[in-house]
Amino acid sequence: MSGALLEWYDAHARVLPWRVPPGSGERADPYRVWLSEVMLQQTTVAAVKDYFHTFTRLWPNVEALAAAKDEDVMARWAGLGYYARARNLLKCARVVAERGGFPDTVEGLRDLPGIGPYTAAAVAAIAFGRSETVVDGNVERVMARLHAVQEPLPASKPVLVSHAAALTPEARAGDYAQAVMDLGATICTPKNPACGICPWREPCAARAEGIAAELPKKTPKKPKPVRLGHVYVIRQGDGAFLLERRPEKGLLGGMLGWPGSDWAEEPPEGASPVSASLEEIGEVRHTFTHFHLILRVHAGTAEAEAPEGLHWERLLPAALPTVMRKAYDLAATSQALNVTGD
């Protein structure tokens, strides 16, 4: 079965900027494989491509990334989400650069900051040809259908990993790992799988039973709670904005953002960080992994000293994390900031 899939992959592999084409004889760059895998965690290929091109243009190898300033990397990561990944990316790059390269085993990779079981297996297989079992959401879906696994995720994950391990070959393990992921991304899709052109259509138990589109089953998720807060978009006459850098730990850690209140399930009190005439201009909404956030946006101009923990800075909105950029976009369209007068 692995041979049949590899034949399909040789003809139909997706062209991706971090990937070595099958049959090219080239060796995958561990840096590019690792960088792409970190970026792709809980993010789509389409969303990652531009970020990957930017990072590899600015920092073409792990040594260059290790030498980069934290704020530059965080700014380029803005909009990709899950900002702990960016902090761990830098930590990992600096450890790898100091030791002179990436370790080539799962055990060695697992010792690096921010690398979990999936990323370690992916880098070991794709970059170093190790026969490791790589299981992402695409692979889970393929295995659930191939073996008609009825138990819902996440409880069924150990069974799916076991099925995936049984099919992982010793040779061309990296190509095989990418082939299963490509199969899930292009043929064995979540909705309307193209079973008629699948290289595994004959052995697929779910196709035979007519239940492929129903799998994998998932345990229903609990509704996400809603948190509320206030943010203050305040601008000086010279164009600088009042900003904070969020703590390293926690949501949006290390990122620039607008000063504001805590985020709470009950409406918190809001208070401007400086003496200014502000206008409440509306609200923005954003969804994090574990909750929905609604922020009331207050905007205006002021000439004042920055309070402790805040600073005035001219910035590019693109350097802000998505929820903070939403607040800026709302404020910029109002009359409160007079940004069009610059």
Describe what you observe in this structure:
The chain is of the alpha+beta class and 342 residues long. The chain has two domains: 2-214, Hypothetical protein, domain 2 (Endonuclease III, domain 1, Orthogonal Bundle); 226-341, Nucleoside Triphosphate Pyrophosphohydrolase, CATH 3.90.79. The chain contains 13 helices and six strands. The protein has helices at residues 2-12, 30-40, 45-58, 62-67, 70-77, 84-99, 106-110, 117-128, 137-146, 157-167, 173-186, 205-209, 322-332; strands at residues 226-235, 241-245, 256-257, 279-287, 292-301, 310-313. A three-stranded mixed β-sheet has the order 1-5-4, with helices on one face. A three-stranded antiparallel β-sheet has the order 3-2-6, with no helix packed on it. A hairpin with a 4-residue loop joins strand 4 (279-287) and strand 5. The longest helix is centred in the N-terminal third of the chain and has 16 residues, at 84-99. It is globular and about 70 Å long.
What share of the residues does DSSP label as strand, in percent?
5-15%
Low-confidence segments, given as residue ranges, are none
Report how far the terminal alpha carbons are from each other: 63 Å
Q: Rg, please?
A: 24 Å
Q: Give me the side-by-side strand order of the main sheet.
A: 1-5-4
Approximately how much helix is present in the residues? 25-40%
Query: What is the third-level CATH name, the topology of the largest domain?
Result: Endonuclease III, domain 1
Number of domains: 2
Shape: globular
Report the CATH architecture of the largest domain: Orthogonal Bundle
Structural class: alpha+beta
| CATH homologous superfamily identity of the largest domain | Hypothetical protein, domain 2
Number of strands: 6
Helical stretch tally:
13
The biggest sheet, with number of strands, parallel, antiparallel or mixed sense and barrel status, is: 3 strands, mixed
Order of helices and strands: HHHHHHHHHHHHEEEEEEH
CATH structural class of the largest domain: Mainly Alpha
Mean pLDDT: 92
